[in-house]
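# nightly structure sweep
# worker-07 picked up a monomer target from the shared queue
# config: single-sequence mode, recycle default, output format = structure tokens
# input follows
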Amino acid sequence: MKDSQLSRRTFVKMSTAGVAAMSLPALAGARPGGAAEAAPGAAPQQQGGAAAQNVIPAWRPGDADSFTRYYFDSLMLEARYLDSDIPSTKLELFGETFDTPIMTAALSHLNNPQGGMIIYAKAAAACKAVHWMGMGEDKELEDIIATGARTIKVIKPHESNDEVFRRIRHAVGAGCFAVGMDIDHAFNSQGKYDNVLGLPMRPKTTEEIRSFVKAARIPFIIKGVLSVTDAKKCLEAGVAGIVISHHGGHVPYSCPPLMVLEEIADAVGGKMKIFVDCGVVSGMDAYKALALGADAVSVGRHLMPYLRDGVEATAKRIDAMTAELARAMAVTGVTSLDKMDPTVIHRTLF
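# output follows
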């Protein structure tokens, strides 16, 4: 997938070395698009000499979400117009075809607006996009499937494997076309086993994951991978796909998904699907993830405000992001998703 003379790992080394070489004040004072921006009311600053108190930080140290945004914005594209054409954004996934690689994310409990989970699913169905579902009762999943949305159900790492197997059986019986597990919800903020809404969790072993893969009999996906180490273990367990995610930055200093994406893509060598979650808010963000090795991306929190305006507004935003992606593909000479090329990406240090 996505052949290139320059390996993704080379890009990773360039990126991590470049970021490490920057001083903290240089990073904190950086702004996308040019020089540091002065705070309201501050005196004009000479280029290169802004005082720390007079700049608006581009990211907050330790805040994985803000650094993920910074990292997305540090990636620039070169244009490749010659021999380009109108691109296709069709996604082939597990034997099915979708109109876009921009998927919904595995959200849960969207009760504001009332019925938000159903609105979310209907919007995905309207866009012919993959839909994901997180926590929820069995009936809610059945109602989501009834919307026509092709759905992937993500199961928490419940302490009881009997409960995991039960939920796998239900997801398969309800009509999900893939199922998975959210492995990064095993520990709480004190380093103890997590408890989610009264449900005890615990980490899983590679062998346990293998048993879930065998039980599912449909593609099984692991969400919450953020290292080559876990990616290789997933491959060993027979997983069909992984979601590179830091779960909305719930662990401080978590790597941005795109920082580890290329190295993971090199390590698994096209033997499993790779999805990216966290921080995607535009078609351009999606393009950058796809160029660096992802097969598709998920959009979660960015879509939540649109749910208040209903299915049409939410679907319109997904379609708009797909159009943004198509434009980026067209101007970089990429006519289909399997022709993405990481060498179009240039890294900048603001």
